[in-house]
Amino acid sequence: MKNYVITIARGFGSGGKDIGTRLGKELGIPCYERQILTMASDQSGIDESVFVETDEKLRGRYLTTFLRRMPPTSNVLEPMEKDFTSDVNVFNIQAEIIRTLAKTESCIIIGKCADDILRDYDNVISVYIEAPRAACVKSIMEKMHVSEKRANYLIQSTDKYRAKYYRYYTSGKDWTNPINYDMVLNSDRVGREKCVQVIKDYIKIKFGE
């Protein structure tokens, strides 16, 4: 089998990152999430804090642009150009890294609109992980040691900015639309470990042994 990529979009608290990490360990391939920010910083020379600040969220003026429905450009700018550290260019730098990974190695990519960036690649499986709010709240409370009220706030705010980010960079697509993905899994009903197994089984179904 040639190299393949699993993209995982996830609701906050659904365990998508945990599932991706477990899947990577079982398959013996890397799982990229925060690492892409570091790679993008190293490649571009832009301080990593800029990538962290725009990680799956839009900054002020891009929210205004989003409301006007102005499509972002996909061209990566040169360091001397005015908007080199703009949100759009920062996104495009990460997108180029994601495309390079898809062409060169087997891996798992968490978030970053990777499913849409790689939508035309035939070696990609896209997965969306979600869970009921109660399960997400419990997960966040245990993982981050916060109150139920704080967990609810974090879930609502994080899912909101991720949805806006996805909609902006995919020209209006709905982040939770199952049509965007090969499969949608309810991690509460299926269980995280079984989600890993389901994805592994689907890899064999789609790509063969």
From TrEMBL:
Keywords: Kinase, Transferase
The protein's name in its UniProt record: Cytidylate kinase
Native source organism of the sequence: Catenibacillus scindens
GO terms assigned for molecular function: kinase activity
